[in-house]
Amino acid sequence: MKKVYYLKTCNTCTRILKELNLSSEFILQDIKSEPITVRQVEAMEALSGSYEALFSKRAKLYKEMDLKNQDLSERDYKHYILEHYTFLSRPVIIVDDKIFIGSSKKTVEAVKTVI
């Protein structure tokens, strides 16, 4: 499977997608207009090893809800990711059995080696 979970309104996501110039075999899912499902987030967790790895601590809501001062469990991370798209660290790129999470230069370069 080749899939990208991203936010169409995120300039960073669109810049990365343009830079990667992904082939048509990639399925693009705008997580705002097509929210991620329980099954999808569980599949991402299986590849990444944890829900925390998928969770964005840079999200505005993370600060607004004062989540940094709470002791969050894996169950909590999963709940928040499913509750609001902003908690998913974006983009999430899946290439077969590999997952790439976030927008760091290192992550984008790693994606380039497998596409």
Overall description:
The chain has 115 residues and is of the alpha+beta class. The protein has 5 helices and 4 strands. The protein is globular, with a radius of gyration of 14 Å.
In short:
The chain has about 120 residues and is α+β, with helices and mostly antiparallel strands. The protein has helices spanning about 10-20, 40-50, 60-65, 75-85, 105-110; strands spanning about 1-5, 25-30, 90-95, 100. Strands 2-1-3-4 form a four-stranded mixed β-sheet, sandwiched between helices.
The tally of beta strands, per DSSP, is: 4
The amount of beta strand, in percent, is: 5-15%
Classification by helices and strands? alpha+beta
Cα radius of gyration in angstroms? 14 Å
Biggest sheet, in brief?
4 strands, mixed
Q: Please estimate the helix content.
A: 25-40%
**Overall pLDDT level:** 97
Low-confidence regions: none
Helices, by number, come to 5
Termini distance? 12 Å
Helix and strand run: EHEHHHEEH
Descriptive labels:
115 residues, alpha+beta, four-stranded mixed β-sheet, 5 helices, 15% strand
Give the arrangement of secondary structure elements.
Elements lengths: L1 E5 L4 H10 L6 E4 L7 H11 L11 H5 L9 H10 L8 E4 L2 E4 L3 H8 L3
Parallel strand pairs: 1-2
Antiparallel strand pairs: 1-3, 3-4
